[in-house]
């Protein structure tokens, strides 16, 4: 872990969570994910050719899926090593800062609460617009339950991608491995689609993202249930039952776990009919519709997200303390 002990990394993870709570996502052009996204676009432009055979697209896509994360991890390792060489405390600061940029608790909360605020004030057109900024489905005809469902699903799913998974990989490999994970996740969000362009070219990126999220997604399920113990009215028991009975129905091997946990605990049903580019698509239904979906469920899902981040922060401090550091 670039010269750091496990206990040191655990404490820096706790500090990174606090930095994210306060600062959130830094704006252009300093955010490393923006730079990673630019690198993906440039390399994709060099590699992708619509006329290529499917097998050629898959090979080129594999090259993209290997090159970008490797470059991100190596660059991060060099940055941390240089900071350590200049001064140990600078190394700590750089590590904390860059780990904080791989998570997005505050950014996810802010985006979700824009939808929540618009719905609560009856500004449906604005709510649709805000929802469209965080989901890939059509939002022009959404009513309040649809916008609330889409936002809750996004918060639940991204509790893995934007919090637990980067911290899991940071614990194993510090800022370099956390940034490598963020590069993989960014690749999936940009080229991991099952459409004509990316079905073959993006397959490696999508599979790698699934693999790196496999353990974190299952860990997130338990963390969400633990966070549910702190949320009045939530039912962790029902959430666990929903994960067991419904998570496998989701087309993703990972996303069904956090979405089922949240749906079960809040007594709502996620999934169902979505529209993508004007084409209806029926997703597996997760949880049980014990309550009608409404804006308030967005706020509750955000509270669960923050509950998980608090547990992760306390866990980092506890690991550091238990090591006798």
Number of alpha- plus pi-helical segments: 12
The multimeric state of the shown protein is: single chain
Overall domain count: 1
Strand content: 5-15%
Radius of gyration: 20 Å
Concise summary:
The chain is mainly alpha-helical and 325 residues long.
Topology:
Blueprint: H1 6-23, H2 32-47, H3 54-86, H4 88-101, H5 105-120, H6 124-132, H7 144-191, H8 198-201, H9 203-228, H10 236-246, H11 256-266, E1 269-276, E2 279-287, H12 296-322
Helix pairs in contact: 1-4, 1-7, 1-12, 2-3, 2-7, 3-4, 3-7, 3-9, 4-7, 5-6, 5-7, 5-12, 6-7, 7-9, 7-11, 7-12, 9-10, 9-11, 9-12, 10-11
Please characterize this protein's 3D structure.
This protein has 325 residues and is mainly alpha-helical. The chain has one domain (6-322). Helices cover 72% and strands 5% of the residues. It is built from 12 helices and 2 strands. It has helices at 6-23, 32-47, 54-86, 88-101, 105-120, 124-132, 144-191, 198-201, 203-228, 236-246, 256-266, 296-322; strands at 269-276, 279-287. The protein has a two-stranded antiparallel sheet. A hairpin with a 2-residue loop joins strand 1 and strand 2. The model has no long low-confidence stretch (mean pLDDT 94).
């Amino acid at each position: 872990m670039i010269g750091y002990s496990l206990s040191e990394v655990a404490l820096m993870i706790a500090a990174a969570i606090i930095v994210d709570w306060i600062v959130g996502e830094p704006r252009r052009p300093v955010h490393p994910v923006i730079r990673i996204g630019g690198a993906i676009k440039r390399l994709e432009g060099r590699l992708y050719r619509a006329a290529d055979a499917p097998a050629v697209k898959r090979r080129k896509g594999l090259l993209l899926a290997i090159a970008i994360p490797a470059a991100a991890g190596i660059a991060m390792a060099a940055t941390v090593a240089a900071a350590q060489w200049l001064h140990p405390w600078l190394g700590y600061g750089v590590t904390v800062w860059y780990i904080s940029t791989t998570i997005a608790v505050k950014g996810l909360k802010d985006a979700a609460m824009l939808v929540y605020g618009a719905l609560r004030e009856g500004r449906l057109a604005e709510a649709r617009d805000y929802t469209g900024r965080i989901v890939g489905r059509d939002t022009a005809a959404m009513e309040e339950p649809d916008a609330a469902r889409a936002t809750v699903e996004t918060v639940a799913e991204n509790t893995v991608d934007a919090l637990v998974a980067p911290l899991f990989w940071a614990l194993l490999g510090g800022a370099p491995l956390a940034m490598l994970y963020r590069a993989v996740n960014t690749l999936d969000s940009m080229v991991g689609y099952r459409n004509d362009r990316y079905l073959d070219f993006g397959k490696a990126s999508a599979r790698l993202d699934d693999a790196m999220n496999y353990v974190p997604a299952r860990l997130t399920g338990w963390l969400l249930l633990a966070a549910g113990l702190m949320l009045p009215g939530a039912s962790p028991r029902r959430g666990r039952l929903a994960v067991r009975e419904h998570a496998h129905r989701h087309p993703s091997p990972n996303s069904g776990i956090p979405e089922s946990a949240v749906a079960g605990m809040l007594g709502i049903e996620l999934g169902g009919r979505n529209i993508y580019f004007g084409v209806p698509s029926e997703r597996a239904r997760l949880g049980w519709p014990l309550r009608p979906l409404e804006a308030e469920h967005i706020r509750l899902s955000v509270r669960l997200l923050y509950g998980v981040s608090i547990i992760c922060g306390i866990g980092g401090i506890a690991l550091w303390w238990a090591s006798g550091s």
